## 1
Amino acid sequence: MASTTSKPHTEETVYVYEAPVRLWHWINALAILVLCLSGYLIGKPLPAIGGEAYDHFMFGKIRFAHFVAGQILVVGFVFRFYWAFVGNAHAREIFHVPLTRPSYWKEIWHEIKWYAMMEKSPKKYTGHNPLARISMHILFVWGIVFMILTGFALYGEGEGPGVIHTLFTSWVIPLFGQSQDVHTWHHMGMWVIVIFVIVHIYAAVREDIMSRQSIISSMFSGWRTFKDDGSSD
Amino acid sequence: MGWGAPPARCSFSRMFPGFGTPFAELSGIGTAHFDTDAGKVSRMAIETFYDVMRRQGITRRSFNKFCSLTAAALGLSPAHAQDIRNAMETKPRIPVLWLHGLECTCCSESFIRSAHPLAKDVILSMISLDYDDTIMAAAGEQAEAIIAETIEKYDGNFILAVEGNPPLNQEGMSCIIGGRPFLEQLKHAADHCKAIISWGSCASWGCVQAARPNPTQATPVHKVPGLADKPIIKVPGCPPIAEVMTGVISYILTFERFPELDNQGRPKMFYSQRIHDKCYRRPHFDAGQFVEEFDDEGARKGYCLYKVGCKGPTTYNACSTVRWNGGLSFPIQAGHGCIGCSEDGFWDKGSFYERLSDIQGFGIEADADQIGGTAAAAVGAGVIAHAAASAVKRARSGSSSASADTTTTHEDA
C-alpha cells in the first residue's frame, strides 16, 4: 500500500460536510467561544466598576451575551440533530456510534495506536475516524446536552415560574441537590467543552498534516480530498 | 371523621381531600392547656382563636388588622382577609406537638419573635401548642405525659412540628429525649399525626449536624427510614424567618390544607424566588459593581456581595422581601453575603466567602476552576507533547525516506 505516492495520483474527492453542517459548525464554534468567555466571567467577574449603578450595565451585558450565545447554540444544536435525519450519512456519525459492532472497536484501537505512534499509517476515512466519532459523541454531543439542560435550568431560575422553569429548572435542581450544585457542575461542564476544543483543534491540525485526507479545508469547502489513492487500509 | 381518616398516602395532592372537614370535627373535644404556674394540665371547652385572642386582651380592631396583614403576608387578595377572619372566629385551634431532635432551638427562637403581622402571643394562641419542651412550663414526666395524652386524644388529627432531626447511628443514641432515642419518639408521633411540618434546615435537609462526615448520621425527617408515610411540609432556613413560620401555620389553619408546595416540599409562597431576585443590591450586580473585600470602597457604597461569596443567587428564601426582626434588615442589608442557610447541604459547599463551591470527592477541596483548569492544562500539555512527538516522528520518517530515496511514505504526501 501507499508505497508510491510520490507518483502522480488522481485525487479522489468526496462531498462530506453539507453546507448546513458547515454553517452550523462555525456558528456553533463562535457560540461556544462566546459562552466560555462570558460564562467564565460570570463565575469570576472582572474587577468592580465604580460609580453609580445607573451608569453601568456591564455584568448585565456579559450575562446577556451568555444567554444570546446559549440560545443560538441551542437552536443550532436542535437543527443539527434534525439534520442527522435528513442529511447525508455523515451527518449521523456524531449522534450514533456503533458501539455494538466489534469491528468498530478494532478500528478505534487502530486509531489509538496511530495516535500513540505505534502504527505506521492511519486508515482512510471519508467521515470522522472512529476515535474522533466516539470522542465527539461523548464529549461534544453529551457535553452540550448536559450544558443545555443545566444552562436552561439556571436560566429558568432567573425567569421564575414559566415554561423554561417547568421544563428544566423544576427537575434539574432537585436532581443535583440545590441550585449551587447546578452552577458548579455547569461550570465544570465548561471545562469539559474547553478540553474537547483543545483536543478537537489539535487533532484536526495534526490530521490535516499527517493523515491521508484533508480535514480543516473540508469544513470550509465540504469536500474531502485524499492525498493518496492507496486502499483504505 | 374526615380528619381522623387515615391520611392520604404520601401524595401532597391527595392530602388535600383529607383536610376537607377536619378541624370542625374537633369542636367539643376538650383540649389541653398548660397552667401558667405548675405545668398542670387542665381541661376546658375548646376555644376558637378569636376567643383566645379576646381573652388575652386583643381588641376586635387589632384582630381585624391582624387578619388583613396575614392575608397580605400570605400573598392573598384582600377578600381573603375575610376568610382568615372566619377561620379565626369559628375554627378550633389545631393541636400541635412540637418535638425537638438534634437542633439548636434557633427555629423556636425565631418563631417566638414573629413581630408582624403576628405578635407572639397571638400566634401562640392560634395553635394549641400542646407540647414544646423548650417553651412549655411543664417538665420531666409531666411533660412527657402530655405527648402520650395528645397522641391518644387526637390520634390522626394533630400536626407534628419537628425541629431538628434524629441521628440514626448507634440506634439513635446521640439524641435522647426522656430516656429514649428521639428517633423512637419521632416515629411514634409520626405514626399518629395528621401531617408533619419540618421546621428549619435540620428537619428539612440535615443542616450542620448532617454536614460531612456526619458522624451521628443525622437524617432529615423525610429521609428517616420507617417513618410513617405522612404529608411533610419543609420550612427550611437556619432558622426560618419568623413570619414565614407563622405564615405557614396561618395558611394551614385558614384553608385547612397545606399551602401549594414546590416539588421539594417547600411552600411556594415563600420559597419560589431567590434572595437574588428581590435583592435591593441587584442593580449593583447588573452594573458589575462588586465588593472585592469587606473593607473596601465598594463595601462602603453597598455594592453587590457576589464576589465575596454571597449565595443569594442560589438560595430560595424570602429574606430579601420579608426580611428579619420585624422587617428591619437581613444579612445582605447588614453588609454580609447570604450563606444559603435554607439550601440543602449549605455547610458542605466550601467557604461562605468564595464564589465558587468546593467539589467534594477529589480527595482535596477544590472548586470547578481549579479542577477544570488543571485538567485543561494537563490536556494542553499533553497536546503540546504529542505535537512535539508527532513532529519528531514526521521529521524522522521524512529523513529516512529521503535517504531511502526510492519511496516516500504517504504521511509525507
## 2
Amino acid sequence: MALLNTLLLLAAALCIPGLINRTRARLAGRKGIRFAQHLYDVRLLLRKGAVYSTTTTALFRTAPSVILGTSLVALLFIPAGDLPALVSFDGDVVAFAYLLALGRGALILAAMDTGSSFEGMGASREALYGALVEPALMLTFGTLALLSGHTSFAALFDAGAGDDAKLIIVLLLAAYVLTKIVFTESGRVPVDDPRTHLELTMIHEVMCLDYCGVDLAYIKIATWLKSAALSMLAADAVAAAVCQRWWFAAPLAVLLTGLSVGIVESTQARNKLVRNTTFILTITALAALVFFTGYLLQLNIGIQ
Amino acid sequence: MLFLYTLLFLVLVVAAIFMTPLRAKVWTALALTGAGALWATVRAVGVLAGATPQTLWTIPGTLFGGDTGSLDPLSALFVVLIAIGSVASILYSRGYLAHTLAEKSPAHVSLHYTSLTVMAYAMLGVVCSDGGLSFLFFWELMTVASFLLILYDAQRREVSRAALAYLIMMHIGFVLLVVGFVRLDAVCGSASFDALGTYFQTHSPLPLFVVFLAGFGMKAGLFPMHVWLPEAHPAAPSHVSALMSGVMIKTGIYGILRTTAALGDLPALRTAGAILLAAGIVTGLWGVILAALQNDVKRILAYSSIENIGIILLALGVAALGKAQGNELVALCGIVGALLHTLNHSFFKSLLFFGAGNILSQTHTTSLDQLGGLAKHMPLTAMLFLTATAAICALPPLNGFISELLVYLGLLDGIASGSNILPSAAALASLALIGGVAVLAFTKLYGTVFLGSPRSHEVAESTEVDNLRLAAMALPLAGILFVGLFPRAAVGCVTRAADFFLHTPSDAAGWLLSPTLASAGRIAWLLIIVVALLLWLRHRTLRGRNVVEGPTWGCGFTATNIRMQYTGESFSEGLQSIATSLTQESGEGSPVGKGEIFPDAHRFDIGHRDRIGRLFSAWWVELLRLINQRVMRLRTGKINHYVLFALAFLVLVFLLSILNVI
C-alpha cells in the first residue's frame, strides 16, 4: 500500500505541470502545448551533454543530485488520503521541512558558485522568501498537530473531522494556507514567474541559468516533486475534512494545484518584488490566524 | 587546600611553559592540557556509561560553609565537551600562531599558552564544582584567562578595547553571581547548587532565579547582554574564538541548567520556563537576523553563537514548561534537545572558527567584500567549512538537525497534547524563522567567501593550510558526523546527562525517543545513498557525451567582471529592508549618485551596527568614564594623602562596629 502511495505521488508530480499548462492555454484561448510536453522537454535534456562555467567548483556539479535526492526522500513522508506513507515517525514533519531546506540551500549555493550577478540576485531572494515561508509551514503543521493530537504526517490527517463543522472550517483554512505555500515554494505567480527568462525580476529560473542537460533535468524534476508533495498535503487537509480516501486525495492534489496555479497565472500579474515580502508575511499571519482559530475551537470543544 | 593546589599547579604550568623553547611551547601546553583532558574524559565517560557519580574534592568549612566538587552525568557531558574543544583549539594554535612567533616576545607567547592551559583547567573546574567559593574561584580564573587570551594582538587598538569591554561585562555578571551566592549562603548556610534547591523551596524563588539567569546569561550571551560577543570574537585569535564560542559560553548554559533544575517541581518552574522560552526566542531571533546582516566572517559567526544560545535556552524553556505541566515527553525532548544542541554547537562552531582562522591566516582578511572563490585555493578547508555550515543550519544528515528535531518534537508534542499550546506555537514559529534566516546567513557566508571569483589578489594567491590544522579541524568534524549519522547512540549518552532534570529514569527516556531517532538515522543514510545513486546516474549519463567548460553565462552582457558578482551586502539587502529597526547604519564614503551619468571612482562601505550594542556603549561607558574621573581625583600620588585614606577607613570600620552595623 505504501508503494502505491509513492507511485500516486510520483504520478501527481508528473501531471501537475501538464495540467497547469493546459489550464493556462485554455483560459488564454490558445491551443497550447500538449499535456506531456514537459516530459518530452526533460527527455530532451537528458540526452544532452553539458557546459560548465570555469568559475564553478565540484559543488556546482553535486548540487542537482542533492536537490533531487532531498525532494525524493521528502516525498516518502507524504501520505495520500488513507494510504500509509513509506516512512513515518513522530516528528517527520520537521524532517520534511528541513529536507526541503537542504535542497533550497544547495540550489542557493550552486547559484552563488557561478559568480554571476544575476544568479546571486535569485539566490538572495530565494533565501529570504524561503526563510519567511518557513514559519507558515511549521504553524500549519502545528495547527494540524493541535487538531489531531499527533506529530507525524500519518496521524496528522487522521483526526477525521467527522461531522464537526467547526473542525472542517479549520482544516479547509489550513488547506488554503498550504496552497498558498505551494505557490511560493514552487515559484509561481504572484511570487515568481517561471515563464520570464532573463529578466531581473525572477527567482527560481535565474538560479539554474548556468545548468543544462542532466543537471537541469534533475532540478526540474525536483521542483515537480516538491510541489507535488506540498499539493498532496493541501489535498490531504481537504480530504480529511470531506472524504479521506486516496482516490479522492490524489486527483484532488493534481486538480487543486493545477487549476489554481493555472487560473492565477492567467488572470493575475506577478507581484512587484517589494510586495513579495508582504505577500509571504501575510501567509504567515494567516497561518497564525488559522492556528489561533483552531486553538479557540479546541478550547470550546475539548477534543483530545 | 584546593586553592593551594591550584596555586601550585599554576606555578608549575607557568614554569613549564616559560622554560620550554619558543617553538615547543605549544607542545608543552598541549601535553599539559591533553593529560588533564584525557584523565577527565576517561572519568566522565565512565560516569556517562553508568558508573556512580564521584566526589572529586572536599574542602571543609572555609567560606560559604565548605566546598565540594563532584562529577555527575551533567558535569561529565560538559567535561567531554570542554576536553575536546580545548585540545582541538591548542592543536590548531600551532599552525595559526606559527608566523606570529617571530614578532612576539617569548614571554608574550608563553603567557598566551599558559592562559590557554589554565583556561581549559578552569573550565573543567567550573563544571565539576558543586557551587560556592570554588565555583566562583574557577569562574573568575576562567574569565581572567580568557581576557588574557583575547589580548594576544594587544597592539591593535580595537583588540584592547574589546578585551576591556569583555572584562567589564564579565565582572558585572560576576557581581550578580556573587550576590546570588552570598544571599544563598546567608539563608541556607551553604552556597552549593543543592542548597539552591532548598532555598527555592523555602523562599520566593523568582528573584534569585532572575539574578542567576542574568549572571550566567552574561557569560552565555543572552539578549541584551550579548554585546560583548560580536566585539570579542573578531578581536581574539581564531583558536581562542573557537574555544570561547564553542566551549566557554557553554559554562553559562551550564549554570542556567543547574539553576533551572534546582527549581524542582515548584509552581515557579512554569514562570521560569516562560521566561527562558521568551529569552530564547528573543536571543535567537536577534542573533540570527544580525548575523545575516554582518559583512565579516567572524562577526557572522559571533552573532550565530548568540542565535544558538537562544535555541538552547528555548529548548530549556520547553523542558521547564513540559515538566511544570507534568508532560514527561515534552520535558524529555526539551532537555535532551538543549543538551545535545550545546554539544553540537561546540562541534560546529569550533570548526567554523577554525575555518575562519584558515581564511584569516591565508588571506589576511575576514571581510566578505575582499574574499571569494576560496574553494578553488583551499579545497579541504572549503569542504570542512561546508559541512559545518550545513550542520549549523540544522540540515540533515548532520548533527544540528538531530538536536533541532528533538526541540521541534517537544514543541509539537506540547501543542498536540494540549499542555502548552500558545507558548509552544510562538516558539515553533520563531524556531522555524530562526532556521530559515540561518540558512540565509550561512549561504551568504559560504557563497561569498568560498564560491564565485576572488575579489582581491591576496585571495587569488592563497593556498591550503598545513595538515596539523586540518587534523585539529577533524576532531570536531568527527563529532558532527557521529551525532548526525548515529543519533541513537549519541542521544543515549546525553539522555543520561539529562537525569538531573527528569523524573523518568534514563532507560525509559531513551526508549521514548528511540523510534524517532532511529528513523532520523535511517533517513540520514537513505539520503546519502539516494544522492550517491543520483550522482552515479548523472555520471553515467554524461559519459561519452560532450562536456565542455566556458565562462559563466552573462545574459548577453559580454563585459562582466569580478566586481559585478553579488556581494554579501547585496545578498542580505532584502532582509535588511525588513529589519531596519534592529540596526543602525554606519557608512563611509558615498554611493554613486543618481545624477552621475559618468561616475568617477567611488569608495563606499556600509555596516550594520547592533542597536543594543549602541545603546549600551552610549550610556554606561560614558557613566564609567565619569565615575573613573571622580575616583581619579583621589589618586594624588602623595603618601600623606594615602595614609589619611587608610586612617579614614579604619575610623569608619571602628565607628561601624561600635554602632553594631557590621
